[in-house]
Amino acid sequence: MDSFSVKATIVILFSFVAGVSLAQESTPARAAYHLFPVDKSCTCTVAKARTKTLESSELTKGKKVFQVFRDRKSKRELFRLELGSPDLKWWHYGISLEGDFNADGIPDYSWYGGDDTSDEIYAFLSSGDSYRKLDIYKSFELEWTRTFHKRVPDFADFGLDFHLEDIRLIRDPTGLVLASEYTSILHPEATKRRLRVRSENFVFSGQ
User: Fold this and answer.
1) Three-state secondary structure of 67-128
2) At 173, phi and psi to the nearest 5?
3) CA 101 – CA 44 distance, rounded (Å)
4) What averages of pLDDT result for each successive group of 10 residues across the chain (207 residues)?
5) β-bridge partners, 98
6) What separation in angstroms does the CA of 164 have from each of 89, 119, 167, 188?
7) 178: phi then psi, degrees, rounded to nearest 5
8) Which of 51, 90, 128, 160 is buried deepest, with most CB atoms within 10 A?
9) Number of CB atoms found within 10 A of residue 61's CB
């Protein structure tokens, strides 16, 4: 093999190795986020008004109360949620988890609001310079319909038969997946079953 062929082979091998390395770097590592961890001091879902990157305040507009979240450095509003009315709103609410769920270098968040009868849960996923609100319950409810072709349970109503447990957002090289186990409140001895929702079936709602 002449010197030109040797150099060409080296260049090709180097390009291949570099390409593999870049591909590995550009592929997000697998990660699983438990979106609604439990505060052991109260045996309740974590809900914070302030995190490492966010701070919040409440805003009343007419008959509605909102929790407004702003970037702690720039003070720019990132998103807001309706809490109810001045006379009736969630008892417990706020950010449950902060993390880079979609691996774009920008923090994402899960949010919880609830009382003793029902709750709401969302994830806020960064999209450029704004956020998209992922409606977690609606995503699971539509997946239930696709999977079982039966009446959809209202997972947010604590009085109904079915309850979602250990809600996770899983990131792998194929994208994001919502995963949870559901169990029967009336029949807790029943075997838990899993629901998984791929990102193309996520339900996003307006803010």
Assistant:
1) EEEEECCCCCEEEEEEEECCCCECCEEEEEEEECCCCCCCCEEEEEEECCCEEEEEEEEEEC
2) -60, -20
3) 23
4) 48 42 52 94 90 97 96 97 94 97 96 91 94 96 89 75 88 94 70 87 84
5) 109
6) 23, 12, 7, 12
7) -85, 135
8) 90
9) 8
